[in-house]
Structures are given as C-alpha cells and as structure tokens.
Design a protein that fits this description.
The complex is a heterodimer of chains A (398) and B (277). Chain A is of the alpha+beta class. In chain A, 54% of the residues lie in helices and 17% in strands. In chain A, α2 (16-53) runs antiparallel to α8, α8 runs antiparallel to α10 and α8 packs parallel to α11. Chain B folds into three domains: 2-101; 105-134, no CATH class; 137-274, no CATH class. Chain B has eight helices and six strands; from the N terminus they run βββαβββααααααα. Classes of the chains: A alpha+beta (398), B alpha+beta (277).
Chain lengths: 398, 277
C-alpha cells in the first residue's frame, strides 16, 4: 500500500496545477462540510455552557413553555420560604421582568427591567460599582454596558424610569440610582437591560400582587443535585413547571434549535454528495487520460490490485490534503458565518452557533474517509476492467 | 374576538353525559391538536388552565382550523384552541376579565398605521403599539438568514469553481495537439480563445439551467419533508425568477472564467513545441 501511495503521489506531482486546483476544491467543500458539523451542535453546546455558567441549575415557571411566555407565578414570597426549607435546594432567586422607558428620553426601543431579590444570588456579573443594597433609596439600579453607553450613565447617575407594563394608565415614575454596570446572562448584544429589587419593579408597574415570572434555583449537590431539587419543587407546587438545565437543553434541541440541526444535516448531505461527484469526475477524467500509461504498467507486470490501489491512493491524497487544509480554513470561515448569524436580533452576546468539538472533527474525518473510498469506486472499476492489449494497440495507432 | 389559548396545559376528553352541566361553550381546535388527541368536530372536551385539571370547563368542538404559518414559530407544535374571550377569562381565573395580552386593530386607512401607533402610545402611556407593516425583528432575522445562505452559496461556488477549473484544464490539455495543429494551419489565438470561451459559456449556461431546473424539481421534495417534519403549512423553499437569475449570474461568470484560464494555459505554449517539433 505504501508503494501505491508513493506512486500516486508521484503521478499527482507530475501535474501540480491540476493537483492544486483539486485540493483547493476539496478544501473549500471540506471547510463547508466541517462548518456544517460545527453548526449541527454548536448552538446547543454554547447554550449548555451558558446555562451551566449561570450558577442556577433549575428554572421554575408557571407554564409549560421553556421561555417566559405564560402567566406569572403568584404568592412568590410564601413559595420561596417553603422552597428554602427543602434540603435539595441551596438558594432560590425570583425574577419579574418589566418594560420601561427612561424619562425624557423618547425611544423606539424599551428597556427590559428585571426585579430580583437582591439578597439572593443574582443572575449577573458586576463589572463596575458595588452590589446594590435593597434598602437603599432611591432604588438601586444595575445596568448593562449598552444601557450605560446609550444614555451616558455611570455609577452614581440618577435615572427616572417610566413603566410600560401594559396598563392604559401609567404609575408614578420610579427614581433610581445606577449602583453598578454588569454583564447579564442571556443578554442580547443590542439589549437595553437593567435590574433592581422586586419591590422597585412592582412599584414601576403599580403591581400589588406578589408575582414573579421565573424562579432560578441553585440545587444542593450533596442532597441529590438538580434532579432532586426539581422533583421537590414539583411535589410542593404541582402547578409549577420545574426544568433542570439538562431538560431545557434537551427541549431546545428538540424544538427551538432544531432548524439549524436540520439545515446543517441537509447541507452536509448536499456538500458531501457534491464533493463526491466532483472528485469522482476529476479522477475519472484523470484515469481516462492515463489509460495508455496504466495499460503499459499492467503489461509490465503491475497487478490489477496494485493499479486499483494507486487510484484509491490518488483519491485519498486529494481528499486527505484538502480535508486537512479544510479544518483551519473551516475554522476561519466559521467565525465569519458565526458573526453573520449572531447579528440576528435577540441573540445573547455570548452565544455561538459554531462551536468546535472533538466529535465534529471525528465525524468530519470519518465522512472524508468514506468520501475518498466512494469517489474512487468508479475510476477503480475503469482500471480494473481495462483491456490491456486493446488499449495498448489503440495508443500505438493513435 | 378570538384568542389563542396559551394555557392549554391539559385537554381532558369527557365521554360522560353532561346533561346537568351548563351548555358547553364553543371552541375551535387547531388541526395539529385535533390529530394528536384524536378529537372530532362535535365532541365535548374539558379544558383547564393547569396541569392538574382543576376547575375544568366543558367545551364543544365546533370546528378545526389551520394555524397561520409563522416562520418564527415553525419549530413549535401548534397545539392551540380558540375560545370566546369571556370563556378564556373565566377559564383562567389568574387574570381579571378586563385583562388582555394584545389587541389587533384594522384601520380604514392602512397608510396611517404609524401615526395611529404613536397616537396610541401617547394617549395610553402604559401600552406599546406597533404597525404590523413596520420593520421589526422578524424582517431582520430573515435578512440575516438570507446573508448566511448567500455566504454558504459563495463558498460552494468558490469550491465548485476550483473543481471546474481543474476539469477544464484537463479537458483542454487533452486537446492540446488539436489546438496546436489548428494554430499551425493559421487559426489565430483570439479565434481559439473565443472558441474555448463559447464552449465554456455553453457548458456554464447549460449547467446553470440544469441547476435551476433541478432546484425547481427538488423544491416540492424539500417542502414536503420540512412540512412533514414540523407539521406546518409553511413554504421553506421557493425558486423564484429572481433567485434563478441570481444563480445564473453567479454560475455563468465562474464557468467563463474557468474556460478563459484553461484556454490561456494551453495557448500560451508555442504550437511547434506542443506538437513535439
């Protein structure tokens, strides 16, 4: 086999231009194939990483939806007290999301304001300023960088917010002070996000009820982890829906992210078929041009298997060289494609559509090996069934 | 007024007589829900706003509807019912009967939509009003997807261009002696280049036309697959004249360029050397 490989290499080197063009073609197609494999699971891997990074491993909402879309959870304080007694639960955070405008700054885009329990673990990472104090007056506000940039705010700046909570009338404006600038989980790149205490958000919207849109739970690993925590919540409050990170990822892979999986499957199949067809044509034309030479080699004593192995090695060299070059080129290409997709509105700033995994690399290699073999089948058949004497005679006569 | 009931946590089929209960209210069910739960028009079902089925109320299925295809929600199962607003409010006692999620307004003059929306926001400061024709996140999302698909198409064209060039170089190389003979009997380089270009153009146009026809033939296959996969009436692939023209406009120049380069590689050699003299 080594001799066949060396022989195939010599034959390819004889036509460097053709080899280079073939390898460039395989590289482009291979890079696209590699990117589609990265895309097939990228969003899911990135989503799982982001969920795990958040520190909360169970999410509780009042509807079956995996996102905040249903009715709010009521009597939250009593529920938090009861959940706090469960040994499988380490901490619980409440989240109420409202919409607001900055007073005297008419804008087509509204702010998203989250009301949380400032004494519990918070779903953001503070970049500037100090952790907000729930007792402070005016209400302490933690804002994202986009908000700070858009309204020229820094730590200590006073802000007046007007709630847009769906009522025909509007409650009194809320006086607040910027306590810090933070990075929020699941924040879109262009989002205007702020957070304050749940009492301040209730005042912003004129709500009297004790409501939350979602509860974020940190489970206790020593008492069964997220599964035990979710089970305890379901047992205590059957009307609520508790989902572990694992269940959310599974659900998103089945429903919300399935488009990109389907798209990548279709494009992987089309790309592979297309690449296979082109390599087959290239090898077939190449073999047809060298029929006389191959017949002469056969007449000199090279076995049929050896000549067939030569064609297979030629295919392997084309696809191997192109396939290896496709990995770094595909990596660069994926950054470009990722930047395009991440410009979609509402996509979290740290989400990635194309994520490198060892599994993707293994599948890429396996598909290329299969491709090299399949592409060589027809040209191998051509050289295997070549009539030696008739071919030599035709060569001499022509 | 109709309202999509998002609280469809449970659909409890009831086969018992409901003579003592008040007459069931009317409900429309989506085709997807009808098929999944094996329901039928005329059947009485019980709906509840929570998974435990508490305070369930009877409804009579008076019709089935196909949900309006929504490209932003195509991956979600459309398990929905539509009931009269008072019935929905009574069913979901979390919300007061005066509370609504949204109101759709049909204007006499559609051109006035933006003005109407800003007027509503000014008069009712707690509400958000948007014209359905205004550019929103949906249009941006699909513009981004369009750019993504174009980027993939460009990479594919680049790769196939390289393959095409390799093939054209091989094909022209195969005819190098013929070309040299033609040069020796007096045909100019320009004439031979023109011949290679015309040949390349014919192949490129034929290839592009075949590609468009193939895409047109594959269109229903793709659509049926994805419509089956996501149980929706949404159209996923549509080969429009604009897309076909864009495809030809991309493919033909690549074919011509490959022919020109291949022709040049053979014609730059001296004819006598090519025929071995």
């Amino acid at each position: 086999m080594r001799r066949a490989l060396a022989f195939a290499w010599l034959r390819l080197r004889r036509e460097p231009g053709r080899m280079l063009l073939g390898v460039i073609g395989v590289t482009a197609i291979g890079a696209l194939l590699f990117d589609m494999l990265l895309l097939s699971n990228g969003l899911l891997v990135s989503f799982r990483e982001r969920l795990d990074r958040s520190g909360f491993d169970v999410r509780v909402i009042a509807s079956e939806s995996a996102v905040i879309a249903g009715p709010p959870i009521d009597h939250v304080s009593a529920k938090l007290t009861e959940l706090g007694r469960k040994p499988s639960i380490a901490a619980v955070q409440r989240v109420r999301v409202a919409s607001a405008d900055v007073a005297d700054h008419p804008s087509t885009r509204h702010l998203a304001v989250a009301g949380v329990d400032l004494g519990a673990p918070v779903p953001w990472t503070l970049l500037e300023g100090a952790p907000p104090n729930a007792q402070a007056s005016p209400a302490p506000l933690v804002i994202n960088r986009n908000f700070a940039r858009t309204f020229h705010l820094t730590v200590g700046s006073p802000v007046v917010l007007n709630g847009r909570c769906g009522d025909a009338s509007r409650p009194l404006p809320l006086d607040a002070t910027v306590a810090g600038v933070a990075e929020f989980q699941n924040d879109a790149a262009d989002a205007l996000t702020a957070a304050t205490s749940s009492q301040a958000v209730a005042a912003l919207c004129g709500e009297r009820g004790d409501l939350a849109d979602m509860l974020l739970v940190q489970s206790n690993p020593a008492a069964g982890g997220p599964d035990a925590a979710a089970a305890a919540i379901r047992a205590a409050f059957p009307a609520l829906h508790a989902l572990t990170n694992e269940q959310i990822v599974e659900r998103f892979s089945r429903v919300e992210f399935s488009y990109f999986r389907q798209l990548s499957s279709v494009l992987t199949t089309v790309t592979l078929f297309f690449g296979l067809l082109l390599i087959t044509v290239l090898l077939t034309v190449s073999v047809n041009q060298q029929l006389g030479e191959i017949a002469a080699l056969r007449a000199l004593g090279l076995s049929r298997a050896r000549v067939m192995a030569g064609v297979l090695c030629e295919s392997a060299l084309f696809i191997g060289l192109g396939g290896i070059a496709a990995v770094p080129i595909g990596g660069l290409l994926s950054r470009w494609l990722d930047a395009i997709l991440r410009s979609m509105p509402g996509i979290p700033a740290d989400a990635r559509f194309f994520v490198f995994t060892l599994h993707a690399l293994e599948v890429h290699a396996a598909l290329l090996v299969i491709g090299a073999v399949l592409a060589a089948v027809y040209p191998m058949r051509l050289v295997a069934t070549l009539p030696i004497a008739a071919t030599l005679r035709r060569e001499v006569v022509s | 007024m109709r309202r999509t009931a998002s609280f469809l946590a449970v659909v409890l089929l009831t086969w018992t007589a409901l003579a003592a209960a008040p007459a069931p209210a009317d409900v429309l069910v989506s085709r997807q829900l009808l098929e999944r739960e094996h329901l039928a028009v005329g059947q009485t079902v019980e709906l509840s706003s929570d998974a435990a089925g508490t305070a369930a109320r009877p409804f009579r299925i008076v019709g089935v509807y196909e949900p309006t295809p929504d490209p932003m929600r195509f991956a979600q199962e459309r398990l929905e019912v539509r009931v009269h607003l008072p019935d929905a409010a009574a069913l979901e006692d979390r919300l007061p009967s005066s509370s609504l999620t949204s109101i759709n307004v049909e204007l006499r003059d559609r051109e006035d939509a933006a003005g109407f929306a800003s007027d509503v926001e000014r008069r009712l400061p707690g509400l958000t009003a948007k014209s359905t024709a205004a550019p929103d996140e949906r249009t941006s999302t699909f513009a981004v997807l369009d750019r993504f698909h174009l980027a993939i198409a460009m990479v594919t064209v680049f790769g196939s261009g390289a393959f095409l060039l390799a093939l054209m170089v091989m094909l022209v190389d195969e005819r190098r002696e013929t070309v040299a003979t033609l040069r020796l009997i007096g045909l100019t380089k320009q004439r031979l280049i023109a011949q290679v270009l015309v040949e390349g153009a014919l192949i490129a146009v034929a290839g592009a036309a075949f590609g468009v026809l193939f895409a047109r033939a594959a269109e229903p296959v793709f659509n049926r697959f994805f419509q089956w996969r996501y149980d929706t009436a949404l159209v996923f692939v549509r080969v429009t004249p604009a897309i076909a023209l864009r495809c030809v406009a991309l493919a033909v120049p690549v074919g011509l360029a490959a022919s020109a380069i291949a022709g040049w590689t053979i014609l730059r050699r001296r004819a006598l050397l090519t025929v071995g003299r």
